[in-house]
Design brief:
Blueprint: E1 2-6, H1 11-27, H2 38-41, E2 46-53, E3 56-65, E4 70-78, H3 87-101, E5 106-112, H4 118-126, E6 130-131, E7 144-150, E8 164-165
Parallel strand pairs: 1-8, 4-5
Antiparallel strand pairs: 1-2, 2-3, 3-4, 5-7, 6-7
Length: 167
């Protein structure tokens, strides 16, 4: 497996993300769904990574800069058949490292409050995220949980690129 910066141009990642958005719509009321679509993920303030196992996309995640030192974790997803196999931990560790290398000092996220999201909340807690109030443009929502984590500042300001793959 390898973690790659993904330009979101290929059909495999588009299909993977479409499945993610459909799943979120089935679980979460539309007014509480905050998953970004492809256009949202292609914005310049977003860095997107895929985890590839051969030619298959088995996981993904993104960082969306909110300001110079704070970013939001977005679009964390593991392929259904690969859940609880360590992919999410591998990706989250990579994203935390990259965030620190980018000079970010705080990383926050929004996830669901439903039981379906309990494994994700446990993963985030395992990696040091703590519950917090809504951040950025979020408002209190019974379907949302907000978490944040401080990062240690790193002197290096440029991210390390593991690999880059077009779609």
């Amino acid at each position: 497996m390898k973690v790659v910066v993904d330009d979101l141009s290929g059909p495999r990642i588009a299909e993977f993300l479409d499945e993610h958005v459909r799943e979120m719509r089935a679980i979460t009321p539309l007014e509480s769904k905050h998953a970004l679509d492809l256009d949202g993920l292609r914005r310049p303030e977003v860095t997107f990574w895929s985890i590839m196992d051969g030619d298959a996309v088995v996981g993904c995640g993104a960082l969306q800069r909110l300001d110079a030192t704070h970013a939001e974790l977005k679009s964390m997803r593991t392929a259904t058949a690969r859940k609880r196999s360590g992919i999410a931990s591998l990706l989250l560790e990579h994203i935390l490292t990259q965030a620190a290398l980018m000079g970010l000092t705080r990383l926050s996220l929004e996830t669901g409050s439903a039981e379906f999201f309990a494994p994700a909340r446990r993963l985030y807690q395992k990696f040091g995220f703590e519950y917090c109030e809504p951040f950025g443009d979020y408002k209190p929502d019974p379907h949302s949980v907000f978490m944040t984590r401080e990062l240690q500042e790193n002197r290096r300001r440029e991210p390390i690129m593991i690999d880059t793959v077009p779609g």
